[in-house]
Amino acid sequence: MRISLLTNGPGELWDWARPMIMELRKRGHSISLWLLPCPYASGSERRVASGLGVDKLEGPLSGPRIWSALGQEKTDCVLQLGGDLMFGRHIAKRAQVPLFCYAYGPKKGMEDARCFTAWPRTAMNMPGARVIGDLVRDALALDTGTTSWGQTGEHRLLLFPGSRPAIRRLSLAWLSTIAAQVRALIPDLEVGTLFSPFVRDDELPMWSDAGLNPLRVGAGVAMRVADYALTQPGTNTLEMMYCGLPALVAAPADFLKAVPLSGLVGFLSSLPLIGVTLRRWGLLRHIARNSGFLALPNRLAGRMIMDEMYGDLTPQALAESIAASLRDADKRARLSGELLALPGEGEAASRLADAMEAAV
Questions:
Q1: Strand locations in the chain, DSSP E?
Q2: DSSP string over 183-248
Q3: What is the pLDDT of residues 53-95, one digit of tens each?
Q4: How far apart are CA 32 and CA 77, in angstroms?
Q5: What is the DSSP letter of 318?
Q6: Which of 46, 259, 318, 326 has the fewest CB atoms within 10 Å, i.e. is most exposed?
């Protein structure tokens, strides 16, 4: 079977498309992987995708080129993992084949697709969607091996610098200051900074020089060793949930200028004077729309399990919060158990592949 798999940003490519590609390859199917335009792209998607063993790799393309290329695709079915469904609908309509979609929430065009999702909670907002489990959990199962990190200090803090260069440029100074201030409060602290495959090796020395101990291991390997984490909102909060790793999810106002936005809002937010105000409004609107939470596990639970802080934050405020959590082993053990108890089955890739094979 020839399968056209469409995906966009780093999270979707690594945590959704990667386990799906491994499952489809195991079954002997031919895969064309399309990298769609994405405002949240790291710039390294094609480099990372080239190591996934697909039969054809396309994109990222923009403008008329992508529509022309999509229209010429020969396939038996289309699977879209992230991005606007207009791209998948274009291929499916031209090739007269079924369109499959996996998502965590509703999006325009789903009425033309066979939709799948991870949890009953998300299925409530996606009429007709089938719950098959979480591809993120399947991706974690691919992270094997060991790490020497976390063998010396009694308190292990895992830091996440982000997959996009603009965010990392801001993160370096912030995380260096936070780590130093936490060390002043907890002298036996052992810090590790986990880098995704989308970060190039030549960037790591500056993080090492800053005393932030860059790590090049699978997320599942590092997270199962850590005691606590500091991260930004995103898919990695789900990885932490499945590893039972408590965390502080932070969105400092100083970082808003580096967060990309799409469409008209993105253009307006780039303007002087009103840009920062618009981005603050966007952050608060995003939080309100998601039951008042930043972290995905908190949204699933409908209550605070992972710590959250956002707005006009300082490194000192974050450091003090982290130190308090690291000192409280009982609280961390309780939160770890609550995270592990949240829903989210594995084997989603297998179930989705079964559905695709049955339909074609």
A1: 2-7, 30-35, 56-58, 77-81, 99-102, 114-117, 130-131, 155-159, 189-194, 214-215, 228-231, 247-252, 307-311
A2: HHH-TTEEEEEE--TTS-GGGHHHHHHTT--EE-S-HHHHHTT-SEEEE-SSTHHHHHHHHT--EE
A3: 999 999 999 888 999 999 999 999 999 999 999 999 999 999 9
A4: 11
A5: H
A6: 46
Decide if 95 contacts 75 (C-beta within 8 A). yes
Q: For 187-243, how does the pLDDT look when each residue is reduced to its tens digit (9 = 90+)? A: 999 999 999 999 999 999 999 999 999 999 999 999 999 999 999 988 999 999 999
* One-letter amino acid for residue 259 of the chain: V
CB 1 within 8 A of CB 75: no
Show Cβ contacts of residue 35 under 8 Å, excluding neighbours closer than 6 positions.
7, 8, 13, 45, 46, 49, 57, 58, 59, 60
Domains for the chain: give ranges and CATH numbers: 2-134+345-359 (3.40.50.2000), 155-340 (3.40.50.2000)
pLDDT tens, position by position, 15-68: 999 999 999 999 999 999 999 998 888 899 999 999 999 999 999 998 889 999
